[in-house]
Amino acid sequence: MRTGLLRLLIGTAAVLSAALIFSGVTRAQSTAQNISGKQFPATKPAPAPKRDLSGVWQLEGDIGAAPIAPDAQIPPMTPWAKTRFDAEKPGYGARGAAGGNDPILQCDPIGFPRIMMMPTPQEFVQAPGRVLQFWEREHEWRPIWIDGRPLPEDPDPAWFGYAIGHWEGDYTLVVESTGFNEKTWLSPTGYPHSEQMRILERYTRIDHDTIAYDLTIMDPTAYTKPIVTPHRIMKLRPGTEIPESTCVWSQENEFTERIRNPATPKK
Amino acid sequence: MAILIILTFAAPSHPAPQRDISGLWHYEGTGASEPIAPDPLIPPMTPWAKEKFDAEKPGYGPRRSPGGNDPILHCDPMGFPRILFLNTPFEFVQVQGRIIQFFEHEHEYRTIWIDGRSLPTGADPTWYGYAIGHWEGDDTLVVESAGFKDKTWLGSTGYPHSEDMRVTERYRRVDQDTIAYDITVTDPKAYTAPIVGPHRIMKLRPHDTMVEEICVRSEEKSFANRIAEPAVRKSSK
Known about the structure:
By secondary structure, chain A is α+β, with helices and mostly antiparallel strands. Helices cover about 20% and strands about 25% of the residues of chain A.
């Protein structure tokens, strides 16, 4: 029941957040921990441990249906991408409408990098040769291989791609990924990508409790320039565990009919 | 021929590392849709379980029929322990305080906490439960789990369980390449005696890697319409 309630709260928060986007109001203080009702102990910034991102982290600030980047920062699309973009019917953003075709509505995987923008926590676990990244959302995970291997040349396209990483200095994990299928959207506001998409991420642990996160998407099949997303901050959530939050179609469908559709403006 | 067989079986196997089951493993000899235990080994059900059992329409086994209601047909999670009995590999990764068990099927995982904590009481039930483990000697990981939703089946041939289900597993690393595996399902609300699964052997697959295999509802639906349903219709005639 508790997860159901949490889900409802987050879902409601997503709808509210969408409403904020529509009305152009921003509220930087609206943080995920307020919404979920969780209270995290105040911690003093301590020096960051070296080459270590272990722990449960959560994006600060933006919650809910935060787009991967504001529309104005998305570079012009290629004709290939524009055709796909025009066929999308997202539930959020300027094009938001009820009865959409967002793939996640039927529990198809949210995929990477869209999963990174969720308000739910994620966790890094460091194991020999790899950093494991777990997301509460969809109970998903990916390995980031840090054993020196290169990216595969011809990977089978996957929902969460293939990722390698290396440390730049003692505090920044640089992650490169490729091998994505083209079935996912970049954002709840839509935006397609191709199988040629490559992603560069930088996780810089600026103090004990803080990661500065930057994400750049390079996909010349779809966009005429790289998409440089806004700088984001993640905060450590000590003493928390990631609960199992699985997308269950039978429940998701009910949620859409009961909450999403009534909350989305009719067009 | 006899000599060859002896040589094969007598091939030196390295001793098992201590308190370590890291690596990618695969069952020996079992195929897909293996039930948790053969029907004769399933103890009598309670009336509560029998009612659920009668409502199940599995796609495999003696009760298989087309138009089934196996929850995985629309990509609801397979859940634990059913996910253990598939012809796909899984991997253990050991880190401080926990062992993470990754399943290729459904791209799933569960955490086995080995930091001395107890099983939680009153936690929300989940598809993969809550698991704790401890080492018995240097070669056997004993895993206790509970906190399961009652929406999953124990196997592809059906068989329900309740939220009171508790699972005890023993992973004994017999040698470098081998785990001897035993599972017992205790669920007095559903079965009049514990279900003791047959002894199974898992083999290390040091050169294999897992692929991303996610149940995708849109694809699963098309598979059911195109392959699974016609196959069951044909075989149940």
